[in-house]
Amino acid sequence: MTILWILLAAFIAACALGVVLSRSPITSAISLLVGFVGVGVLYLCLKAEFVAAVQVFVYAGGIMVLYVIGVMFTDSEALRLNRQTHMQAWPAFFLVLLLFLWMGHKLYHAEYKAVPSAITIAVATSPEDEARTKQALEAKAALARDTNPRQVSVALFSDYLYPFEAASVLLTVAVLGGIFLAKKEV
Amino acid sequence: MNGVARFVKMVTFWELLKGMAITSRFLAKPKVTELYPDVRPVLPYRTKGRLHVEIGTCISCRMCEKACPEGCIKVFQPSKEVFKTDKRPVEFYLSQEHCLHCGLCVDACPTGSIHHSQEFEMAVYNPDDLLFDKETLPYDLDLKHFRWNWIENAPVKK
Amino acid sequence: MDFATIMQYVGWPLIKIVILLIPVFTVVAYMVWFERRLLAFFQSRLGPNRVGPLGLIQPIADGLKLFLKEDLVPLNSRPFLFKIAPIFAFFPAFVGFAIVSWALPWVTPSGKVHPFVVADVDLGILFVLAISSLSIFGIILAGWSSGSKYPLFGSLRSASQMLAYEVPLTLSVVAVVLLAGSFRLSDIVAAQQKMGWYYLFPGILAFGVYLVSAVAETNRVPFDLPEGESEIIGFHTEYSGMRFAWYFVGEYANVTLISVLGTTLFLGGYDIPFVNDATLYAAHPWLASILGVGVFAAKAALFAVFFIWIRATWPRYRYDQLLKIGWVVLLPIALANLVVVALLKLWLLR
Q1: Is residue C43 less than 8 Å (CB to CB) from chain B?
Q2: Are B and A neighbours with ≥3 CB pairs closer than 8 A?
Q3: Cα(B93)–Cα(C246) distance, integer angstroms
Q4: A-chain residues near C141 (CB < 8 A)
Q5: Could you tell me how far CA C321 lies from the centroid of its own chain?
Q6: Top-level CATH class of A1-80?
Q7: Cis ω for the linkage preceding C222 (within 30 of 0)
Q8: Please, which residues 78-117 of chain A have a Cβ atom closer than 8 Å to chain C?
Q9: N-terminal to C-terminal alpha carbon distance within chain A
Q10: CA of A53: how far to CAs of A56, A61, A114, C19, C171, in Å?
Q11: Distance (Å) from the C-alpha of residue A68 to the closest C-alpha of chain C?
């Protein structure tokens, strides 16, 4: 599992580098697309199937399409000759480094809840220990009932309701702004 | 009432369904496709097929040769001595490769020896095969069941 | 890792995939034959009936012809993208079949359960939607990498068409998911069996929206602007031979997938109508499973016949009408239907 994770992470990092370093915008867009799918696979490995599907559905299938259409209609030959970096590169690098360190610190000290996996249940269902078997079977039944989409929706509408609503308001504002900008006569 | 009817028509996609009903009627109708090589087509009465020459009644007058706009007919008259008794051509060339099927030679012929047949499958592998001579020209009219209508230049059932 | 583990995670799924893919490929190939024959019958013709009895070998002859044709790559194109673009169109359509539940599971006398599905995942229908949203790249990349302006315009047209109709399609599926309370296709069928009604009736609006956007999503008449077999130049103008055939196969696989999904979502899947499936299943599990697959296929064939029927009947929409139907008509209907279905679920169908 760790090997798979490292491979995936390396793949996604390579895709991200391809986005930034490529001179041709279409290559950037394609590597971004592949990177999104790679992140989706990473979510799958973490047993977050719902998030993986939404990642592929929304980012790869929705947003990237608009990006690629935008890129298709730009003059890629002219862009290729342009200078791709500018003076803000170094400050940006340090800011990103700071963000990265902060996130790493947070993740390192975070507390994780153990989720009963299929393997632990299989180990627990041994004929010797009747009580443990019963407990494990109950856990298995609960796991079966508690599907991934349900977990996500429960989390979204209970613990994270406020950020969720704030994000939706933000998106509505963005949509309205987009319409206002695009439409000449309102 | 009219408005209500229009609304109902719009909601139930009446026009679209009507179209589908019409096409579904065609599903059961007999098909118009002809299964050509298996089922031979019944050709029209006056089909202008390959030219056919009755060498026996031909008098080698070369009217067809003159009438042909493409110059695809070539008639060789017999010698003067032979012509007195036997007027049949020595050789008769017909290049079906150039033939327009215009029928001018048929109109020109005083004896009605040249006429269109019902034969229409004239695809060959070699263009030389389209040059017909005295031997290959005759069209085997089924004389048992047909006779030639010289006025209309078409076979008639007996 | 021992042999049993490898078989469980690699061997059996592979065998299942092969068992599934052979009939799916056959069905997709014969969809072409079926469409041509039926379309001809609608137009008082006979259609291809020369190659083999009833023309049944026609798909093989077509495939052979396309295989033997030269594979042209235009000079002006981006060869790599040009070559991989058909895969994007081809593969999402076939991946979707993995989660379709074909019949009730077959239980062997020794108590082993063999479900008639390759992967009965939690996500179910969402997985199909996510994967099929990638198929749009097959069209965009094909249009762009051809290095010619006609495919580019064609791909732009079809990209906006597919984006426009993906939204109502998803919303109509969401209505069914709301009714069933699960994304899993076997659960959706089970919920319909439990309710005694197919979701065609409580979700009649969703069904209509699904039908229209399914036709648009698969680029078929009357929404076949991306291809426009008769006159419009589409995104695959520069394609020839087998690469063109992949788009063709992808389209028919999409039609099959959409029919199968529609059957599961709205027509009760493998539920045998007018028969109590549970008792039949308890008495003759084998018979129930086989009958289930047959009924499933028959219901899906109804969809296919409908698709061909409308192709034989309706003219093509103009491009602005197409986008208007998508955004202005179908999207509000789908959203309103979602509210109605949610209220239904809340009060009536608990």
Answers
A1: yes
A2: no
A3: 54
A4: 68
A5: 24
A6: mainly alpha
A7: yes
A8: none
A9: 55
A10: 5, 10, 23, 26, 16
A11: 8
Query: Rounded to an integer, what distance in angstroms lies between the CA atom of residue C338 and that of residue C76?
Result: 47
Please, what are the domains in chain B? 1-30 (no CATH), 51-157 (3.30.70.3270)
> Is C41 close to B20, i.e. CB distance below 8 A?
no
Quick one: CA dihedral C145, C147, C149, C150, positive or negative?
negative
Please, what is the Cα angle at C209 between C206 and C212, to 5 degrees? 150
Sign of CA dihedral C310, C311, C316, C322: positive
- For chain C, the distance separating the N- and C-terminal CA atoms, rounded to the nearest angstrom, is 46
CB distance C86 to C142 below 8 Å: yes
Instruction: pLDDT tens for chain C, 350 residues: list them.
Output: 678 888 777 888 888 889 888 999 999 999 999 999 999 999 998 888 888 888 899 999 988 999 999 888 888 888 888 998 998 888 888 888 988 888 888 777 777 777 788 877 778 888 888 888 888 888 888 888 888 888 888 888 888 888 889 899 999 999 999 888 888 888 888 888 888 788 888 888 899 999 999 999 888 888 888 777 666 678 888 888 888 888 888 889 999 999 999 999 999 888 888 877 778 877 777 788 888 889 999 999 999 999 999 999 988 888 889 899 999 999 999 999 999 999 988 887 66
ipTM comes to 0.80
CB contact under 8 A, A57 and C130: yes
Instruction: Give the single-character DSSP code of A63.
Output: I
Residue from C42, C307, C329 to probe the interface with B (highest B Cβ count within 10 Å)? C42
CA distance B138 to B117: 10
SS (H, E, C) C108-130: CCCCCEECCCCCCCCCCHHHHHH
Q: Which of B23, B32, B33 sits opposite C309 (nearest CB)?
A: B23
In this structure, what token pair is assigned to residue A77? 């030959």
Are chains A and C in touch, 3+ Cβ pairs below 8 Å? Answer: yes
